[in-house]
Amino acid sequence: MNKKIKLNNGLEMPQLGLGVYQIPEGQATYDAVSLALRLGYRHIDTAHAYQNEKSVGQAINDSGIERNDIWVTSKLWPTEYADPTAIDRMLKRLGLEHIDLVLLHQQVGNVDAGWKMLEKAYLDGKVKAIGISNFDGPRLTKIFDSAKIKPQIIQVEMHPYQQQKDLKAYLAPYRTVMEAWYPLGHGDKVLLEEPLFAELGEKYGKSAAQIILRWHLQEGIVIFPRSTSEVHLAENLDVYDFELEPSELTEIEAMDKNKAYFELPYEEQVQR
Ligand code: NAD
């Protein structure tokens, strides 16, 4: 449980966590994060756009767990990239003194100003690691070419139907760690009911979701599947007592169809 992965700045983070996208602010988020921490999760992925940072921070502060033992990620929305107060406001919403990882959530807006702000927050010690989410094509290469501090993390849609192989190859020289959003395909039944996962599940005594999560971990990917149910939260953490064989990893690799469940927002949608 809580196996760590090393970033290109030497820092280590728990490879598996809880994502809180679409969990409403208030009691629901507070309860989900509190329960996850009780079960042993030590990594929470939120964002300003999810509007639940306040309850994430409250659950962490009330947990009695050492702050340094919990990894907290949040994300800046493009409308904040040129606002020099954005990080301090994020810290205030979370009620925390530092954030472990802050990402630029989308590749639109004033990315140059946003990245400079993250570099400054990193050098000031307010943020322990910095990265990007949903960048591709020329905007991805531009940030890697121009950044003084290269992104330590990139978070993108990733699951057996969308394996991001080109991105993986591009990032290798930078040793930028990849994080998968929609690690379970957002719960898509077609993915979860693939016969291969049923077969492997039978062999290892695991569910389809556990097979998929284990595959991500063995690929060196950081994951934070979302759930509010105790059964699923516990199940998603219980993926460290078996290992997929190389031939099984190859079979899952062959499922890639470059399929995105979610179309990234255009400039005008983000600026609203
Ligand atoms: P997911 O792939 O984690 O799937 C969640 C769905 O799967 C939910 O419906 C849940 O009930 C179900 N589920 C969870 N555990 C299960 C299990 N063991 N068996 C069967 N079903 C199970 O999708 P997600 O929550 O949308 O994404 C995960 C996290 O990724 C988010 O919470 C968020 O933190 C992050 N995210 C980031 C971005 C981005 O733009 N950076 C976009 C989307 C999500």
From TrEMBL:
Substrate binds at H105. The active site is at Y50 (proton donor). Gene3D superfamilies: NADP-dependent oxidoreductase domain. The record marks K75 as: Lowers pKa of active site Tyr. SUPFAM superfamilies: NAD(P)-linked oxidoreductase. Residues 16-256 form the NADP-dependent oxidoreductase domain. Transmembrane segments: none annotated. Keywords: NADP, Oxidoreductase. This is Oxidoreductase. It comes from Lactococcus fujiensis JCM 16395. The lineage of its organism: Bacteria, Bacillati, Bacillota, Bacilli, Lactobacillales.
